[in-house]
Amino acid sequence: MYPRFEPSVVERMPFIFFTGKGGVGKTSTASATAVALADAGKKVLLVSTDPASNLQDVFSQALSNEPKELDDVKGLSVCNLDPEEAAREYRESVVAPYRGTLPEVAITQMEEQLAGACTVEIAAFDEFTGLLAKPDIHKQYDHIIFDTAPTGHTLRLLKLPTAWSGYLDESKHGASCLGPLTGLDEKKDTYETAVEALSNNDKTLLVLVTRPETSAMSEASRASKELQGVGIDNQCLIMNGVYDTVDQSDHTSKSLFERQQQAIKERNNALQPLRTFMLPLVSFPLTGIDHLRKLYSDETSTKFLVDEYSLDTQKLHTLPALVQNYAEQSPRVIMTMGKGGVGKTTLASMLAVGLVEKGNHVHLTTTDPASHLYERFNGSGSEKLKITQIDPVHEVQEYKEKVLQQAGPLDEEAKEYLEEDLRSPCTEEIAVFQAFAKVVDASDDEIVIIDTAPTGHTLLLLDAAQSYHQEIQRSTGEVPESVEKLLPRLRNPEETDILLVSLPEATPVYEARRLQDDLKRAGITANHWVINQSLYETHTTESVLAAKAQYEKRWIKEVNESYSTFTVVMPWQAEDTIGYDQMKQQLT
């Protein structure tokens, strides 16, 4: 077995990035490492660059873009680089000098130009690179630890410095869907310094966090290769949540142990060369400073907990009951939403099979580049089931060609301007959004089930319905009918049902709850919840797993009583359900 990960592994590195698939424990591992280094006398800054950050849950206090010193841990400061907040600050910094000078209509136009997703991206990137490139930050802290987002988002974030540096090199004018590029060109040196720091093996360490599960290790392997491709070679791997307190007489315990050992044995070839460490599966939740300190101590098990939470199991439902509910209500669009790693793909696939078996035509689709939808069906299916993926690369190319064609004959300068505008990162968001709208539009004839990307990306995708409406008009001169129809359909509970997916743990529940609130503000109701991978439902008696199961009851109870009108609890399963027939069997 691998040696246990200790904070001493990273103590010589000023910049430390934790990354991996959603739900593998990046936040808890990064947070525990930050606390341990600070306890050892180091000055540490812990930063989240994830739009769906949960650092405030881990430390049980409100955080902002500004580093906040923690009273309970001397030497540790924590901040959340909230892209939305950063965008507001960036937008105001650009617009403020013109207030009182330009007419109000011009100010309004500037604000609208800076209201798109590109502004959010560039503002978050600006703060991210600022931390990497500012010498005064280096002087203040021995370590800057980045608790990065799930893999797909992380890859975009870490590739940004090169992408934006290239974009600024090629940009010959100051207008694009980014809005005014004021201030960006002046920061080009800062961006290049950040790129240099990222690929400097003496300064930067990438810690890939995974779990002893095939899908999580697959994602870690993909991330490792892609980041090596952008020059980030100094990498190590943490196998988190390794279960070693097996009870051979307990079916769940034995199954979990065997499943993990098999996954470790078959670990991906790309991960073999990496220095590899492990952290044990612990029975307690990694929230609160006391629990974070326990992770790197020998005290990784707790006494069996008293049964503090009673559950009215009569009010909890099964997956077949949810399928029956949908069969009777007949929504045309079903979206599974939640933090990465909670099982949205599995659930969307099972729902699709269940509804096909009830006689419906179903279109199952994904906008997540990291989805395993095709692998899950393993080539099997039904004539009534269509499976598709929205491919961003293809959609962008198609969108660019359409815009250039609709623009008609242009002189060389106008054509160069338009082509430059289409190089902006906003183009991908618009193209994908239009494809998403087309899929939803097809639900006139079939039930569409959308297996969405992790939370931060999902919110941006839904926000596109408003944010890019004007951008689409400006770029192409027309708004597709499917785009105009999308938001009203999403807001109509008779047509659309949003299914929030969570695990029975603090962080995934908090994340799904925030998503529920965000949807509510957008006029979209989401009252159905699925709590996935529940140990409580397995009735395990092994001490570590049973203690975790007792902690779960609190979250199942809270969701069922406070947030949900229809709660499904799904037990932890020893085997992934692969193939149409196997999924069908589980629904009977």
UniProtKB/TrEMBL annotation:
InterPro entries, per the entry: AAA+_ATPase, Ars_ATPase, ArsA/GET3_ATPase-like, ATPase_ArsA/GET3, P-loop_NTPase
Under the heading SMART domains, the entry gives:
AAA (SM00382)
Specify the domain of life of the species encoding this protein.
Bacteria
- Write down the Pfam families for this protein, in alphabetical order: ArsA_ATPase
Q: Which residues are in the AAA+ ATPase domain?
A: 12-233, 330-535
| Coiled-coil residue windows | none
**From the UniProt record, which GO molecular function terms apply?**
ATP binding; ATP hydrolysis activity; ATPase-coupled arsenite transmembrane transporter activity
SUPFAM superfamilies named among the record's database cross-references? P-loop containing nucleoside triphosphate hydrolases
**Family statement drawn from the similarity comment of this UniProt entry:** Belongs to the arsA ATPase family.
* Descriptive protein name: Arsenite-transporting ATPase
| Protein source organism | Geomicrobium halophilum
